[in-house]
Amino acid sequence: MGEVLKVVKTADSYIGVHEGSAAYDDLIKTFEMSGYKYDGQGCTEIALAFIIKALGLKRAKQICPMSNYSNQLARKFKELQDIPALGSLVFFDWHDGKGIQHVEIVIDITDKSIKTVDGNSYHQIIKRERLFSNKYIAGYGVPDYKEDKDIYIMDFLNACIETTVIKYGDKGRLVLWAQKYLQAHGFYLDGKLDGWFHDYMLKEVKRWQAANNLYVDGEIAKFCLTYMLK
After folding, report:
1. Cβ distance 111 to 15 under 8 Å?
2. Of 1, 26, 64, 93, which residue has the fewest beta carbons closer than 10 angstroms?
3. 84, 148 in Cβ contact below 8 A?
4. pLDDT band at 70, cuts 50/70/90?
5. CATH architecture of 165-229
6. Entry pTM
7. Quick one: pLDDT at residue 39?
């Protein structure tokens, strides 16, 4: 069983557990093995406890920053990603740019939403569904699991192929994945792997589309993605 699946299954197994129960107290003790104290916030400590519980303390600390505050934890990631991955931490900013106040862990991805485990909702661990369009999502912290990072992208694309469009002006991990694909297939050879859909990439996407008898519009949408994922 891969690391991501272990974390997802562990988080899922605690849904319905109440604060004050033996199982919840065990998660608090597990988190405090990290060297941080449980301060009652809950969401941050419990999300990290799932990772420690699933992979062991040593491995968890190797792949994921630790903190007992969601805002501090978010800052410890080199950067927050713009698309979800299974086992990633999704950070929320309830107050329009004034920092991170909440974190949950992603256990499933659908075509329009993520399903998460929230470690402290009215003193209970619950399952939630959050739309991609949720304006409070600040980004995703992806631990450095053993699984290839591109697997996360492909999982996301397979789930969201009907609605995903990678187009001129976009930036982020989806664009970077497309740039890598193009280079591996003889296109975009003089371009930088910078995650930016700029003029040269637009030209190369159109050239790739023409070479593969696809509709030439410079956008990577359903039919192009289906071709790339096969």
Report:
1. no
2. 1
3. no
4. very high
5. Orthogonal Bundle (1.10)
6. 0.82
7. 84
User: What single-letter DSSP state applies at residue 37?
Assistant: P
Q: 3-141: CATH homologous superfamily?
A: endopeptidase domain like (from Nostoc punctiforme) (3.90.1720.10)
Question: What Å distances lie between residue 91 and 42, 43, 80, 105, 139, CA to CA?
Answer: 14, 10, 9, 9, 6
Helix (H) or strand (E) holding 3, with range, is helix 3-13
Burial class (CB in 10 A: 0-12, 13-18, 19+), 119: buried
DSSP letters, 124-172, are: B-EEEEEETT-TTEEEEE----SS-HHHHHHHHHHHHTTT--B-TT-BS
What pLDDT, on a 0 to 100 scale, did the predictor assign at position 1?
67
Task: Give the CB-side neighbour count of residue 177, counting CA atoms within 13 A.
Answer: 23
Mean pLDDT of 60-69: 96
The residue ranges of every structural domain in the chain are 3-141, 165-229
Count the Cβ atoms, other than its own, within 10 Å of residue 133: 8
Chain segment 83-139, per-residue pLDDT in tens: 899 999 999 999 988 899 999 999 999 888 999 999 999 999 999 999 999 999 999
For the chain, give percent helix, strand, coil, nearest 5. 40, 15, 45
d(CA 79, CA 73): 11
Q: How far apart are CA 47 and CA 73, in angstroms?
A: 11
How confident is the model over 60-89, as a mean pLDDT?
A: 94
The beta strands (E) that lie in the chain are given as: 89-92, 102-109, 113-118, 126-131, 137-141
Asked whether 174 and 83 are in contact (CB, 8 A), the reply is: yes
